[in-house]
Amino acid sequence: MHGPRDEIIYVGKAVNLKNRVRQYFQSSRGKTEKIKRMISLIRRFEYIVVDSEMEALVLENNLIKENRPKYNTLLKDDKTYPYIKVTVEEEFPRIFMTRRVKKDHARYFGPYTSGIAVKDTIDLLHKLFRIRSCSRRLPEDIGKERPCLYYHLGQCLGPCNGYVSSEDYRRHIERALEFLSGKYDYVRDYLKDRMNSASESLEFEKAIEYRELLTEIESLASSQKVTDTDMDDRDIVGISKLEQTAAAQVFFIRDGRMIGREHFHLDVDSRDATAEIVQAFLNQFYTGTPYIPREIWIQTELKDRELTEQWLTKARGGSVRIITPKRGKKEKLVEMAINNAENQLIKDMERLKQEDRRTKGAQDEILDLLGLDSLHRIESYDISNTSGFGSVGSMVVFVDGRPKTNDYRKFRIHTVVGPDDYASMREVLMRRFTHGLREQEEAAEDGVITSFGTLPDLIMMDGGRGQVNIAVSVLEELGLDIPVSGMVKDDHHRTRGLYYHNREVPVDTRSEGFKLITRIQDETHRFAIEYHKSLRSKAQVHSILDDIPGIGPKRRRALMKHFMEIDRLRAASVEELQEADGMNRAAAESVYAFFHSV
After folding, report:
1. Given this chain, do its domains 376-540 and 544-596 carry the same CATH topology?
2. Which single residue of 199, 292, 302, 445 could bond 316 by disulfide (Cβ 3.0 to 4.6 Å)?
3. CATH number of the domain at 234-349, please?
4. What is the dihedral of CA 425, 426, 432, 438, to 10 degrees?
């Protein structure tokens, strides 16, 4: 479903699309305010026909993740988790952290919820098993370079110089794999023996070293809060809902041990059934996560359970089961996840409400204030210069009341000389929207659209009538219909309201909408000024001689040493220029032509 600005506001799938769409336009009884609002915004439908229900499910998940439609149940958090990767397919394997699980022959452990904990674990493995941390190609590169510092520190076996055979090295890797699987007993016993031996030999520094390693292992072992005897991989998911927010708690069980947990928030409708929320969470979470376990335990039966299992099985490359435990220990583990989700939701609810008021709520205030149909993306522009020198433009983007820094853009002014902010702004806007329209045309062919191809629902200019009129004229010239408002300041250079449709719209200075306008204006200023400062800093260390063709650093230094002042250098003849060290006839003529060309 597309909205007034042709943005995607809802994505859904159905075996019978006619029946699915017709439901929205039948009697309004039983429809929530959210659904009524969505229906009022629909301007057109777009549909894609696929060959199977599973293809439809995959496409629906991808479109929701890519477009984040306003009226779908959305997973707010977009996190990537660290994993420990062991490259067992290599002759001399490595152990390192990664956030992408590939379908290769390596062993992956995770996901872990703390990147710091992963790095600490990898450091511990290097100390314990002396595994290499370099990226050298072995055995091809054996003996080509000297061993690194880790070898001399006793934290690497030195395979790069043939100091260990692949068989002996592999035994160390096997011990590391056992350790990562939670089998700590062997290492504990080994370190205790070494510590006692070192102590008896009066090697107290080594004994302390072994004791510290033991402490690290004990700490790691004690962090495993849940154990299970069948040593399988599974995620346990619990969902709790309160008003228009839901929380999902996920326990990550790997090899029978809980290696971590994480919670997520979802925007939902107050009438959404738990099964619908669970289904939406699974679809979005496992579309983005690189690792899918063998089993996923949930609290309620799903309508599309078999279809979802087929999709997850295909994505995993192995069988995946979705289980709803009914009794016993399994049910208690799911209940524990639900209770954790509920506790987290209650704790975060006020914070979430406050955050929503200052972002999405504030944006809705601006929408109502200006009488717009919809508002999702706001772009704001500013010009910065010093007496006309080095004019630059800035573009900042706010989506749902939050800054989207990846979409910020900087512009160096090319066509305007002197302090003409209106002409500079015209250049910036013309370049931005011409580029955007070109990307939309390209997207119509290849289906790929970037941030520049996404047009705003509202443009907020840093200024009043003049800046607004410049923006309106550019949009009219390009055939675009985008609302434009100006952020008007008082005599003390403070925001006082909005200029829209040739009149000043007063804004309650205590409202969240006003605070958002101020944040947008401040951010636009900051971004423009910082860019201008960076260019000024570069210009201060840039010599005019840097621009002369054929004159390198040595000749530049020789010229300045010989002439002392730039004016004397500018007035010198070709013969006089040749008197400087290292200057031949061609170089002297190049310098002379640079200063005397029109």
Report:
1. no
2. 292
3. 3.30.420.10
4. 180
Place of tokens 């154990």: 227
CATH fold label, 376-540: Nucleotidyltransferase; domain 5 (3.30.420)
Q: What percent of the residues of the chain are helix, what percent strand, and what percent coil, each to the nearest 5? A: 50, 15, 35
> pLDDT of 556-583, one tens digit each?
888 888 887 777 888 889 899 888 888 8
The model's pLDDT over 482-512, given as tens digits with 9 standing for 90+, comes to 999 998 877 766 778 889 988 888 888 889 9
Quote the DSSP letter at residue 495. Answer: E
CATH number attached to the domain at 544-596 = 1.10.150.20
Mean pLDDT of the chain: 83
Contacts 24+ apart (CB under 8 A), 46-55: 46/2, 47/17, 53/13, 53/15, 53/304, 53/307, 54/307, 54/310, 54/311, 54/314
Cα-to-chain-centroid distance, residue 35: 30
> What DSSP character marks residue 357?
I
**Which pair of structure tokens corresponds to residue 108?**
């992956």
Give the span between the Cα atoms of 312 and 290, in whole angstroms: 11
